[in-house]
């Protein structure tokens, strides 16, 4: 059974996609970038603040599906500069229990939506 997940606590989709789709017990989130939902502005002050906003947006989507980061089994991280990896990883790690951290890939890409520096998507299971 497929269910569209939406929350006003994360940026609204700006195209033909959903914030997340719950299929059975598995949640597939769309990639989140650092849009502050309260202001509508990008948070680009530093790579750590940008990553924190991305993770908070993902947290809101997970909560809308009645899940937490403990439910996450896989993440995909897209970054515009691999030199930012250590700082991104430092923030990212604060949201997971290292003993149960999800599988992950991190890929450097040429560009991301709105020319941000990081975008993250997740797969979670209840």
From TrEMBL:
<dbReference type="InterPro" id="IPR035959">
    <property type="entry name" value="RutC-like_sf"/>
</dbReference>
<comment type="similarity">
    <text>Belongs to the RutC family.</text>
</comment>
<dbReference type="Pfam" id="PF01042">
    <property type="entry name" value="Ribonuc_L-PSP"/>
</dbReference>
<dbReference type="GO" id="GO:0005829">
    <property type="term" value="C:cytosol"/>
</dbReference>
<dbReference type="InterPro" id="IPR006056">
    <property type="entry name" value="RidA"/>
</dbReference>
<dbReference type="GO" id="GO:0019239">
    <property type="term" value="F:deaminase activity"/>
</dbReference>
<dbReference type="InterPro" id="IPR006175">
    <property type="entry name" value="YjgF/YER057c/UK114"/>
</dbReference>
<protein>
    <submittedName>
        <fullName>2-iminobutanoate/2-iminopropanoate deaminase</fullName>
    </submittedName>
</protein>
């Amino acid at each position: 059974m497929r269910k569209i997940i939406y929350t006003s606590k994360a940026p609204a989709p700006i195209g033909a996609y959903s914030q997340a789709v719950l299929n059975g017990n598995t949640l597939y989130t769309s990639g989140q970038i650092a849009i502050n939902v309260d202001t509508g502005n990008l948070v680009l002050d530093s790579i750590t603040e940008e990553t924190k906003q991305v993770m908070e947006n993902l947290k809101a989507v997970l909560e809308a599906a009645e899940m937490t980061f403990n439910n996450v089994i896989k993440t995909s991280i897209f970054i515009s500069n691999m030199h930012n990896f250590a700082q991104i990883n430092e923030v990212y790690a604060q949201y997971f229990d290292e003993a149960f951290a999800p599988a992950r890939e991190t890929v450097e890409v040429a560009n991301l939506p709105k020319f941000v520096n990081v975008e993250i998507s997740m797969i979670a299971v209840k």
